[in-house]
Structures are given as C-alpha cells and as structure tokens.
C-alpha cells in the first residue's frame, strides 16, 4: 500500500514515465477524487495533495476504521515512526493518528495531515536552539508570556539546567521574541529541560498554505480555551437559536452519519463561545439512558461550520470509545492506558442529568468576521485577542522533507485544555461560578 501511495503521487504530478499505465495508482486518485488534477498544472493544492500521498507512503500503516454509532463516517488511521523526522528520535514509540470525514478525501487528508503535523513538530538536528545570554529577551514578552516562562522554569527536570529557547514572531507587530523550546518543539526526552504542561498538538496545524495552517492553529487554541472555561471553569453553555441555519446543518449531517446505526444515540449542541466571540461549539451525544457520554469541540469562523466540525469530532470520539471498550473486554483492565481510563471515566457521566451539559436559554454574541482571505481573518482575530490583553506568537514548523505547511501558534493568555497550568482566565471563571467540578465531580474532559 505504501508503494501504491508513492506511485499515485507520481501520477498526480504528471510523471508519466514513473506511473504510465498504472491502473492501481489511478484507482487511488479516483477514490480520493484527485483524478484529472494534473491536467491544469501543478498548483498549490495539487502539490499539497501529492505531498500528503508521499507522506502516506512513508508511514508504517494506513488503514480504514468503521464507526458502529456513525456508519456514515469515513475514518482513517495511520501509524508511523517518529524517526521519519530525524534520527534524533530513533527508538521512540510508534505514533498513531486519525482523520474523519464524509468522503475518503476528507478523512485521508485529515489523517495524513495530522501525521505530517506531528512529524513537523519534532526537533531535528538542524533546529537552532538558543541559550541564555541573548540581550533583553524578557523585555520583549508580555505578562502572560512571562508567567508561562516562570511556570516552565519551576518545572525544570534539573533546576541548575538553563532553558533552551526558540525564535518566534510576535503577531501584533511582527517582532522577534524567544520562547522556551519545550513548548515550541517535540524534543527527545533526554534533551528536554522540562515536560510540556499541555499536549503540544494544541495550536499546531498543517494546511495547504501557511495562512490556512496558522488560522487553523489559532482556532484550536480558542476552542480549547472555551472548552476549559466551560468544563473546568463552570461557565454554563448557551443554546443555538432554533431557526439558525446551524441547526439545519446539524440535522442533515446527523442523518447522513447515523443512518444504519445499530443503536440509537441522543445528540445535541452547546454554544460555548467566550468573550473572544469566535463561534465555539460542543456537540454532545449519549445513549438513550444517558450513559456513554461523548463530545466534539470546534471553533470556526461561522456557527454552522463550528457545528459541522464539532459533530464530526464527536463521532470520532464515539469510535475511540468503542475501541477502548473492545480493548477492555478482550484484554482486561491491565491493557488500558491512562488515556483509555479517562475515556471510561468521562463516558460514565450521566449526560442527561449533568447540568453542565444542558444549554441555558440564552444566545452568545459572535464576532463578525467579514473577511474572506485566511490571512485577513487571522489578523482580525489576533487584533481581537490583543484588545483582551492576550498576546499571540507564531512559529513556522514547515519541514523541507515533508513540504506541507505547518505552523504553531502560541497564546499564553488563553487557557488550554488539558493543561497543568491554570491561567487567570480559568481562575476568574471558577471564582464566578464555583467551577465545573461541581457538576462533573472533577472528571477530566480530555
């Protein structure tokens, strides 16, 4: 299969000598709806698709999964060796990624894109890391960033060992700053100064262009901030207006996804948009008796787009829950890892009775984003965050080896979920509401 992906990429790029008459490669392109792309020349989209196929050819496995609760969902999984990025990671555990969609193309691009995103985050031997001595690095960081640096310093594995730093760009003015390397790159364990306090996947994104990747990464930060203020901060979710187009989008999508499911699940939507104003949605589902709670999160430019993405992620988590349940029944409790146990704890919440999962009869205010270009929308959101006192930083993690645009966005003032660091935003929310643990018993969301 890996060789077939490579031949399909060659055919897509018009390399007739390499792939002439390759029937199987043509079938791959047709299944992914890439067939005929080369006739219009190699543009950015076609090149991105070819690079994803080449990346898939380097992975150990690429496979399809069936979702029992959402038969209409197409899901791909993949596994790869981190050493694909650099020999620094020889001996590291195999990494698994996944992607979902309503089409093979959407699921394949999501899965392989997530894999390339992960690989691009890994430190390489050519990455330039800096040590203390660079003049006035602290003077270029705002209070939230300085608090994050202080927290990371306290987490150092060897207190006498100085932090390493990466160059980043402050988005408000384009100025260069330095940020701790351990929140910028995935570093080999032996080389880390401290353990990252949150998953490094948050805020990092791959895309067909640098602007698209940066916007996606920023939206993920906003999504996780909203999720934390809701789940841990105790901010009750709002309703989506009955006649809003988002409701019709959800109904149509769920009909496609649930058609043919053997068991019935209830599904509803929560608007968890914060003071930032970018539409954020949690899609929630459970069995008829309230058990089996699953969710999906999304921040998007429009409410209907957030609804669609949240529902797709919810179905992906339902599939993950089913995999954990199968693992438990076939191999016993000892086979479960820490993440598996979080799945089981969350699924045990009675979704029909938990107040934090019931929307109040209020509507959120959404930020009007009238621009159409990703770069312009990105700037508008960065400006909105700046008005709230939240700095944003950016690093380009694109690797020549994979040739897919990957960007990391960091906003220290936003509260990530999960995270071992509690920001002022979360502290303030807990003070106002008493905290989400009142409703959840402290069970983690993620």
From TrEMBL:
Pfam families: YcaO. Transmembrane segments: none annotated. Residues 99-446 form the YcaO domain. InterPro entries: YcaO-like_dom. This is YcaO domain-containing protein.
